[in-house]
Amino acid sequence: MKYPRLLVDNKVRTLTHFSGIAGGVVSQPYFEAHFGLVTPDGAIDKEKDIQVSSNVVSVLQAGAFFGAVGSPPVSSWLGRRWALVAFTVVLTTVAGGSRGIGYIYGGRIVSGIGVGGISAIAPAYVAECAPKNVRGRMIGLFQAMIAVGVMVSYFVNLGVGLHLGNSEMVWRVPFGLQLVPAGLMCIGLLTVKESPRWLASKGLVKEAIRNLAYFRKASYDSLAVQHEMAEIEAAIQEEKEGRSGVGLHQAFFGKGNFVRFVIAFTIFVFQQWSGQNSVGYYAPQIFSSIGYMGTKASLLASGIYGIMKVLATMAFIFFAVETLGRKLSLFISAIGMGVMFFIVGAILKVYPVNDVSPGQQPSQASQAMAAMLYVYVCFYSLGVGPLPWVYVSDIFPTRTRHYGLAVASGTQWLFNFVVSKVTPTLIADLGYKLFFMFAVIDICGIATFATLIPETKGRSLEEMDIIFGAVSNETRKAFIERQERQLQHELNEMTPEGSHQIKL
Fold first, then answer.
1. 382 or 168: whose pLDDT is higher?
2. CA distance 466 to 422
3. CA 396, CA 274: separation in Å to the nearest integer?
4. Residue 38: beta bridge partners?
5. SS3 sequence, 20-56?
6. In terms of CB atoms within 10 Å, which of 98, 295, 360, 458 comes out highest?
7. Band (296; pLDDT cuts 50, 70, 90)
8. In the predicted structure, residue 448 carries a pLDDT above the cut 70
9. How far is it, in rounded angstroms, from Cα 480 to Cα 486?
10. What is the per-residue DSSP string for 272-313?
């Protein structure tokens, strides 16, 4: 298949975690002074600082929630590719805050709508175009782009703080940079083809065959392309004949469907409460709380954290996601994360850092906690980070995938909003107990959940109905055989002797 072109589409997720830039922006001294977070005696107004910090970060998630849940009709109507273009245009809304903090809030809400729509549609598009033997790797690149975006955001904050720290550029530049990947994405989307599964669902079978052959780097009349197209058509026709199409009630509560929506909801609730978003969005504040005091020290520690996340995610995607499988990767990841958080919490309890002064060399205990957080993010990147997107993109068939990804993405952004909103308060109120809380969620919640879900590695998207009991294996085989015969007839019409020759 055309890997470079699908990689272009995977760049979309780099956009969404420019939301991670906000935690660093609000910790900049000039930002705090400009927006009235500093008292007349030069001290930080803690209550107001917490409120503004959580608002700047969380309003984007609020907008993203509505973008995600509103994406299914747009994706169904326009198709995956043009729906992505539409939401990218929305994403380009940026407000510089020259008229007050409210304008920053407003700009991030509108941008969030674009981010949410993209996050729901992009994994569906990639899943529908990728071969089953590398589908996990391709969708995993979705998470890799998250990691790249987070890493870039940390170093943008560091660079802006060092060189533009005494001007409004300290937030204008980081927020405005989202226009760069948005522009690249629009250009990239013009070079890719529409999802063959979406085309088939709209009755555009010949174009679907042509695009499927394009993505598989094969002739449209090859046996492999014919069989895969027959599978796709069988699943679609089976639904049309057996249930007269898919309404909202059937999409959510039809046989074998509801459990998939429950899994999509649950896996993203656990992901958001695994601790990563709290560390990711508020890395400068988190590292300050364990002893890396001062803006430069905390941002540098955050940047190293971002680098570790990118390297670990890339290693997992290219070497482990298609070998370990979904269940085992998720289980190992959750156990490792929980253990690391327990260690950090225990060290922080025994060696509190309340009295460390800015500029002071971090203690050995602080360095140990930072090291544990770096190991933690490696475990996160082994499963809990990339696998929810991979798994949810796996389990839904074409007819309900846009609903499933909307629920998954909406859940992610809803609880992303909740976590980002409450994290500053949790850091202030719980201290070391915050890490214990996340450890319990990781080990008791996510690890247990991983043992209960079915494995999907190496299975086609159309096989998911069989795995989840929506249809029997015998019934599906009968539909496939019938569709293969019908497809062969249509292929004969596409040959040079037929009336509909197509050039590939």
1. 382
2. 41
3. 24
4. 44
5. HHHHHHCCCHHHHHHCCCECCCCCECHHHHHHHHHHH
6. 295
7. low
8. yes
9. 10
10. HTSSHHHHHHTHHHHHHHTT--SHHHHHHHHHHHHHHHHHHH
